[in-house]
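Supplementary Methods S3. Complex input for the iron/sulfur cluster-bound model.
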Amino acid sequence: MVHRSPRQNVDLRSLTYPELEELVLSMGERRFRAEQLFRWLHGQGITRLDQMTNVSRELRARLGQETTLTTLRPLEALGSADGSTKLAFATADGHVVESVLMPEERKVSVCLSTQVGCAMGCAFCATAGLGLVRSLCAGEIVDQLYRIRAWLHQRGDTRRISNVIYMGMGEPLANLGGVRRSLEMLMHPLGANLSSRRITVSTVGLVPGIHRMATWSFQVNLAVSLNATTQATRERLMPTAKKNPIPRLLQALRAFPLEKRRRITFEYVLIADTNDSDEDAARLLRLVAPIPCKLNVIPLNPTDACNLRPPGAERVDAFCSIIRRSGCTVITRNSRGSDIGAACGQLAGRLHEETGPA
Ligand code: SF4
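Predicted complex, serialized as structure tokens:
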């Protein structure tokens, strides 16, 4: 519901299309204004209301007085030898969030943050050290994509952003409201018009959130960071596993009403002498067997935040061969941007230390 009075707290960029319609009608404007506004806010990704050239000066002035427009301020871009770029942005209240851009031949994938910091405390993650500051609103989530689009445009890069992964700072299912709204906006044909098949929400496995996602009227891809095959190891790596034990998590995933041709992705960060044994590979196969899935095995990107390290190449190969031999789809990839600290939270952590919140 749109809060009618006062409207000062309404962030235009966080309103879904029906809410924007409700807003313009409540201001005594005609319904088609919502379409104009939505195109400017999400199709064009404007940063100032006066850029809406087909909207009357009077309406722009009223919107300026009665609402806000969330826009992130680009702070820094760090390029990696592998072609990925990490971008840091400042929120209006002075916090730092980061996104990662991963170019491929004809398209670009982006990884978006959903929170400032994170409360999940994963042992291998730089963001965990920041703690949770706050969740991002939907406008701040989608604006990361619009700022990246503008950044590409400035460089004359005409590649389209076609894939979006909610896997930056924060746990998406701990910000379900903001995430759901942002997804609706990114998929809207008047906005970025992204296909739901090209959007992935990645979670540490919060069971209540997975149940809620199962009730949504639309579906995007679901990825779950499993990272261990025993409850004890998982709890050591991901404290949130205590409340979301492996059997309950797998039960929620088995019950997830997957659309045709969709599969759950299990992410498995491979850590030396922790979860990389042949027995782990065999257990992993048994755990995921009842679920239509693919496995994404990623050797750990070491950070200063912990003393865990990735296994050597031979161990990674041995682990993946066991999985491949079973016929299960396994994708192995190195952490993108390890030379620029692209593990989530590393750049934001440094900028936070250097500048501090405003
Ligand atoms: S890995 Fe993800 S969920 Fe875990 S602490 Fe880092 S940002 Fe949070």
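The first strand starts at residue 73 and ends at 79. The longest helix spans residues 138-154.
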